[in-house]
Amino acid sequence: MEDPATITQAIANNVRAQRSHRGLTLDALAARSGVSRGMLVQIEQGRTNPSISTLTRIASALGMTVAGLVEVSDVPVVRVIDRSDVVTFDQGGVRARLLVGAERPTILELWDWRLAPGGHHDGDAHPAGTREMLTVLTGELTLTVYGKDHLVRADDAVLFTADRPHRYANRGQEELRLMMVVAEPRQVPDQ
User: Fold this and answer.
1) Residues 108-132: pLDDT tens digits?
2) What is the CB-side half-sphere exposure of residue 29 using CA atoms within 13 A?
3) Nearest one of 68, 187, 188 to 129, comparing CA atoms
4) How far is CA 115 from the centre of its chain?
5) Torsion of Cα atoms, 114 then 49 then 33 then 17, to 10°
6) Distance from the CA of 107 to the CA of which of 31, 65, 159, 187 falls in 20 to 30 A?
7) What does the pLDDT average to over 70-83?
8) Exposed/middle/buried for 88, CB within 10 Å: 0-12, 13-18, 19+?
9) Do residues 55 and 66 lie in contact, with contact meaning Cβ atoms separated by under 8 Å?
10) Helix axis angle, 26-33 relative to 37-44, nearest 10°?
């Protein structure tokens, strides 16, 4: 796995390059993403390790994937991701591993999530038309969408529209592990 400093620097370089490529000022990106200008400055200078939610909002505002923001090197025609290169986000009782992502023709991300008992993650609304598919490998997931809970047990799968706030929660007594695919329509922000 890449060390955290390398990933932080890759995020800094990629956000700055993508913002510049689109001709966006820091203020314009802040307005589009809902991430403060100050936080964007810290991210672009490599002084902070942003949360998954923050990266999701920035990626959506730039019309790209979280995978594109954390990418350390260029993507070849065939790309095998060694387990040592998988990007991991640890946030208390929640551990999310972005296994692989693609931006063309549709934005796709493959995630491996683990939530400790009592752990939860609040997902921000993705762009319109975004869908998430997931399967629970171990434990039980309580997925909340529009205030309604849906229990997803081991070996069950779920598909939902993720263009609204949603929550993944582990209300059980054992670790929850799930695999998730995020499919987002490719949108290029107005310039």
Assistant:
1) 889 999 999 999 999 988 888 888 9
2) 28
3) 187
4) 15
5) -120
6) 31
7) 65
8) middle
9) yes
10) 120
